[in-house]
Amino acid sequence: MNVKKLTYMAMLTAISMIVFLIEAQIPLPFAVPGVKLGIANVITLYAIWTLGWKEAGAILIIRIFLGNVIAGNVMAMAYSLAGGLLCWVIMSLLKPIMKRSQIWIMSILGAIGHNAGQLAVAIAISGTAAMAWYAPVLLVAGVITGAFTGYLTQILLSHMDKLKTN
Fold first, then answer.
1. Helix axes 135-165, 103-126, angle to 10 degrees
2. What gap in Å lies between CA 97 and CA 104, rounded to an integer?
3. CA–CA separation, 24 vs 103, rounded Å?
4. Half-sphere exposure (CA, 13 Å, Cβ side) for 67?
5. Could you write out the three-class secondary structure of 101-144?
6. How big is the CA angle at 11 (ends 97 and 111), to the nearest 5 degrees?
7. DSSP state letter for 67
8. Predicted pLDDT at 103
């Protein structure tokens, strides 16, 4: 790996951590446990699209680990890892068959996967399958937040294209 690519990955990791930490401090106007916009996922999706799945995975894992340690939220790391990794796998598998105009679809499916991973961890930790009743709420949240972050990623890619051509 060359120095330029490694530096770019480090910059994306730092940006994703900053977004993650800021978003963790912003209360949402609705009280739905476990639901947040997931704006840091914009960076993961951007990295999948521009750098590749391996590089995006490295950025994601570092962001989850350092972000939770810095935020003092180590207990949430299992939820973040399960959700983030499942989201990353889904989006990485979809990337070869999706067009750039369909990034929002990748993001929705990734967000649904993220919520499924977190729900699986919650069920495993609590030892009760009754938590599965929460799946419909998370499905709706995943569609909404996934569409939002996918749209933001498409805008980011478009702006970055303009910067490269100028």
1. 140
2. 13
3. 24
4. 27
5. HHHHHHHHHHHHHHHHHHHHHHHHHHCCHHHHHHHHHHHHHHHH
6. 40
7. H
8. 96
Rounded to an integer, what is the distance from CA 37 to the centroid of its chain? 9
Q: What is the pTM of this model?
A: 0.90
In this structure, what DSSP letter does residue 27 have?
A: P
| Amino acid 30: pLDDT | 66
Residue 166's pLDDT is 57
Max Cα separation, the chain? 56
* Separation between Cα atoms, residue 105 and residue 118, nearest integer Å: 20
For the chain of 166 residues, list the mean pLDDT of each consecutive stretch of 10: 92 94 78 78 96 96 92 85 96 96 96 94 89 88 94 94 78
Q: CA 61, 41, 105, 76 torsion: positive or negative?
A: positive
**CA-based nearest residue to 39, from 70, 63, 11, 9:** 63
Mapping DSSP to helix (H, G, I), strand (E, B) and coil, where does residue 33 land? coil
Tokens 């889904």 locate to 90
SS3 163: helix
154 φ, ψ (degrees, to nearest 5): -60, -40
pLDDT of residue 92: 97
